[in-house]
């Protein structure tokens, strides 16, 4: 299964869970900006995965450089979003942080899983 298809599936599952949480609890658990956060993480995850994949295809020896570069990009973008939220919005900081970092860990774990499953057949060839 391709990365794009997996990304769409995980996004759909998370969207259903968010919709269910909003339906049952309103915005007591979920921040009103959750849909923007979800969209942000979909784009950042897709971008960092394709940078890593392109780097691996062009130069297998420097895979770590591309991988850590994409992770640094992800961290900087996330810190910028949190910083801008704290500066410009005066309410629900803790709720925003919990929702944001829950999505951060879900999408980071998803990306690591996809990278490992793509590299596993290649590493088995070398043994």
From TrEMBL:
Its name, as the record gives it, is: Uncharacterized protein
Q: Does the keyword Membrane apply?
A: yes
**TM region positions:** 7-27, 33-52, 64-88, 94-116
Q: Which UniProt keywords apply?
A: Membrane, Transmembrane, Transmembrane helix
| Origin: domain of life | Bacteria
């Amino acid at each position: 299964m391709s990365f794009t298809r997996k990304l769409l599936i995980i996004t759909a599952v998370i969207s259903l869970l968010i919709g269910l949480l909003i339906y049952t609890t309103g915005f007591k658990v979920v921040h009103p900006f959750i849909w923007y956060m979800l969209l942000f993480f979909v784009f950042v995850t897709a971008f960092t995965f394709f940078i890593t994949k392109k780097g691996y295809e062009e130069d297998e020896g420097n895979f770590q450089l591309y991988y850590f570069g994409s992770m640094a990009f992800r961290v900087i973008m996330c810190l910028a979003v949190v910083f801008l939220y704290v500066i410009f919005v005066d309410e629900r900081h803790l709720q925003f942080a919990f929702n944001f970092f829950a999505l951060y860990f879900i999408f980071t774990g998803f990306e690591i899983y996809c990278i490992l499953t793509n590299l596993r057949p290649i590493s088995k060839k070398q043994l």
